[in-house]
Write a structure and sequence with these properties.
Number of helices: 2
Number of strands: 17
Oligomer: single chain
Distance between the termini: 30 Å
Largest sheet: 7 strands, mixed
């Protein structure tokens, strides 16, 4: 009887999948959203790592960490147009930029796998788009881990000034009126991903569209993890994962 907890733990570990978290560094990266004619979604990450001959595919979850290294912080410009960043003028801001930097991961959104015949036309509530065949990437929540005290995420494009798609500095609007990004079928776009402090940010999104018959289709929520000069510290869950990995290797 005294051995039951240990046997149970060994059973759980032996049944656990053999994988570990991956820190994703420099290179082009897309978050792909695919949609079938029947309204089924597939969300995944594809990374063209610098120096690698083939792209690598990852699941869109917290096992894949998009990493921003130290020394890449910028200074927030003055002017109210930049208030969406969530910090004062002259303070540091950390950005994955919309223009590729060979030292950084270059994240974007991709709907190239979606045919225009798969989606119908609709009018989103977001002020930056009108009626069209849209794929919406809607932010649902943000979770922060680190030592920052005023932690915000924002997404924008720059064209003479910031066109702000997402900002958590004024809360998160989950009704689609703000805090979403839109692409047409067959689209591919890179944007600025901004963070107001160092730490780990888990951003949970869902993809949405309207089918040709007018019915709305929504993906399961998926989480993108960003490490701003930070990676998760080892904890009990990671130790369990190491134990599972050892068992996996032993059973090979």
């Amino acid at each position: 009887m005294n051995n039951l907890p240990l046997k149970f733990l060994l059973f759980v570990l032996s049944a656990a999948p053999c994988h570990s978290a991956v820190v994703i560094g420099a290179g082009h990266l897309d978050i792909h959203a695919n949609l079938t004619a029947g309204g089924d979604w597939e969300i995944f990450i594809q990374h063209d790592e610098v120096g690698s001959p083939q792209p690598t595919r990852y699941e869109a979850d917290t096992e894949s960490i998009l990493y921003l290294p130290p020394g890449k912080e910028l200074t927030r410009p003055s002017g109210s147009a930049w208030d969406f960043l969530g910090m004062g003028a002259g303070e540091n801001v950390w950005i994955f930029p919309e223009g590729q930097d060979s030292d950084l991961v270059f994240p974007g959104l991709n709907t190239e796998g979606i045919s225009s015949t798969t989606v119908g036309s609709w009018t989103p509530a977001h002020s930056l788009v009108g009626t069209g065949q849209w794929i919406e990437f809607r932010l649902l929540s943000m979770t922060y881990s680190g030592e920052g005290t005023d932690n915000h995420f924002s997404m924008w494009k720059f064209a003479g000034g910031p066109n702000v798609w997402i900002s958590t500095a004024d809360g998160i609007s989950t009704d689609g009126s703000a805090d979403s990004y839109f692409l047409s079928p067959g689209g591919h776009s890179h944007m600025n991903w901004g963070f107001s402090s160092e730490g780990i940010y888990d951003l949970t999104f869902e993809a949405r569209a309207v089918l040709p018959d007018g019915k709305e289709t929504v993906s399961d929520p998926f989480t993108l993890r960003f490490g701003v000069n930070a990676v998760p510290e080892p904890g009990s869950s990671i130790l369990l994962g190491l134990g599972a990995l050892l068992l996996c290797r032993r059973n090979r």
